[in-house]
Amino acid sequence: MTRLSSRRRSGLRWRPWSKTALGLVFTAAMLFPAYWMLNVSLTETADLRASPPHWYPKEPTLDGYAAVLGDQLPNLAASLLIGLGCVALTLAVAAPAGYALARLRTPGAGVIGFLLLVAQMIPGVVMAMGLYAAYVRLGWLNTVWGLVVADSTIAVPFGVMLFTAFMSTLPEEVLQAAKVDGAGVGRTFVSIVLPVSRNAVITVSLFAFLWAWSDFIFASTLARNGDLVPITLGIYDYIGNNTTQWNAIMATAVVASVPAGVLLVAAQRYVAGGVTAGAVK
Amino acid sequence: MAPPTQRSSERRAEPASSRSAPRPPSRPGRTRAGAGRGSPGPRRWAAAAFAAPLIVYLAAFYAYPLYRNIDLSLHDYTPRAFIQGDPEFVGTAILREVLTSDAFLPAVANTAVFTLVSIAVQYGAGLALAVFFRGSFPLSPVLRALFLTPWLLPMIVSASTWAWMLNSENGIVNAVLGAFGLGPVDWLTSPGWALVSVVVANIWLGIPFNLVILYSGLQNIPGELYEAAQLDGAGPWQRFVHITLPQLRPVSAVTLLLGLVYTLKVVDVIWIMTRGGPGDSSTTLAIWSYRAAFGTGRPDLSEAAAVGDLLILMALAAGLVYVYLRRREARP
């Protein structure tokens, strides 16, 4: 009896940490590809063909990263520009729409909601083809603006749904108080609703940026002439051109993962919230 | 997401009708003038003005591209006709050509295998991990956050990393297999393994999504159910089968359905790893469409758009099922 209870007590203390150990094993397995990317990015070109491959960079080199600095800086700038443009466009469309759907009893709100849902399910290839046909006429191929618009189609439906969900939980008194002070709908929105919806603004911005930054389909179809090369295409061209330089490819991949890393470290709660909000993406 | 403010979560508990009920005036005298209840006109204009950008946006950047896709599939767009804008109208001829082509059934089979195996394993692994992370233990939140990594990385990053890991001569996977006297396997370049390889990479990509959604679903199962079952002497497995699974059913349905939709339209992973090859051995419908339009020197936009039509139909069907599931879930 005593033995049992004492074992149980020590078991209680030990069990959480055994789960932690198991969790560490799972996480390590899951993150192995990311580790491998880092490992290869630091490997010397001569060692890339080593058999068996080195499990860690024995003589770490930054050659791969030097290649990134040499070749990919303009592409990183292009991606940054496209990402920021996409954030601006997404917020400009989605935030007022979210307010209208959540608070202003917009006629046809149900239909709009359904359209947004279906919009998210349309395959990227189909969108790319339709936009390609349209852009040929408009002369928007290979332009920053063209990619900003295309990438925003990934984020706008998500943004509207998130803003709608968020703004319908805002306390009525806050809006009422503004009205009492004589503020119109427009001023209420700008000076009250937007500031109170800071969390939603951040979440939508983060995802709009990340999706634009990560986009491959639109970049590879709407910017194929090589004047405008976002970082994803930079990696793709690398793979196509110099298959021996995998350290440079992986170094570019590491650099391209920086926004994801920043999100993971600095904005983790927004990320998990974004995934669950309406179960999108 | 964290609830916006404490007050708002209290607010939510109140019946919705209280919103439109007159509030106790905080500043008597000015309320009536500011309430504006009697004039729905300006309000309606405001709603329209706020929703207008979205309506225009949806029309220009969703409806029009969709229309163009269908239009492309109903005309014979040779590259020349595409530039000159004078294609011949051929009705459903191209669609019929696609449906009866030798490539059609293999592409459907590849799509089915890719999609069903991916979502089945993603769901299974996601559920197992969600249950695992449910009991709180030290470092659990940190590890759970790290699990999101595959989902946050740009697709091209993950896909090219997997491609290098699975490389026949220099890949780590064959090196490990070789240590056990197995292989080497031509993961990406043999017809028998290419589809397996892209499925494996895609499963890895999809686990975080399943984990996050199912984990949040688990949070909503009342703890008393488990306590009651434990008092009745139910073991962990019985609790899982008789409480977790049935309680999680609505969430599971949505997760699987969204998984289906997102997997059907995958292009990046497959294209970057195998380009649908060797031959057509890892060509799904989405890859077929992408390759026909953008993957070769001689674009065939009409064929690509016809395959795209099929993808649109599937997306629409999935959308309707999704709405149906949501409705059923909302009803008690």
From TrEMBL, chain A:
Record keywords: Cell membrane, Membrane, Transmembrane, Transmembrane helix, Transport
Membrane-protein topology: Multi-pass membrane protein
Gene3D superfamilies per UniProt: MetI-like
Protein name (record): Carbohydrate ABC transporter permease
Organism from which the protein derives: Nocardiopsis endophytica
Transmembrane segments: 21-38, 76-102, 114-138, 144-167, 188-213, 246-267
InterPro entries to which the protein is assigned, alphabetical: BP-dep_ABC_trans_perm (IPR050901), MetI-like (IPR000515), MetI-like_sf (IPR035906)
Cell location: Cell membrane
UniProt KW Ion transport keyword: no
PANTHER family: INNER MEMBRANE ABC TRANSPORTER PERMEASE PROTEIN YCJP (PTHR32243:SF18), MALTOSE TRANSPORT SYSTEM PERMEASE-RELATED (PTHR32243)
Primary residence: membrane
Domain ABC transmembrane type-1: residue ranges: 76-267
Family statement drawn from the similarity comment of this UniProt entry: Belongs to the binding-protein-dependent transport system permease family.
From TrEMBL, chain B:
Region (Disordered): 1-42
Residues passing through the membrane, by range: 45-64, 112-133, 145-165, 192-215, 253-273, 304-325
Predominant cellular place of this UniProt entry's protein: membrane
Keywords per UniProt: Cell membrane, Membrane, Transmembrane, Transmembrane helix, Transport
Domain of life: Bacteria
Gene3D superfamilies reported in the protein's UniProt record: MetI-like
Any single Pfam family the record assigns to this protein: BPD_transp_1
UniProt-annotated location(s): Cell membrane
CDD domains associated with the record: TM_PBP2
Membrane topology reported for the UniProt record: Multi-pass membrane protein
Keyword field contains Repeat: no
Location of the ABC transmembrane type-1 domain: 108-322
Protein family per UniProt: Belongs to the binding-protein-dependent transport system permease family.
Protein name: Sugar ABC transporter permease
Gene source species: Nocardiopsis endophytica
Record lineage: Bacteria, Bacillati, Actinomycetota, Actinomycetes, Streptosporangiales
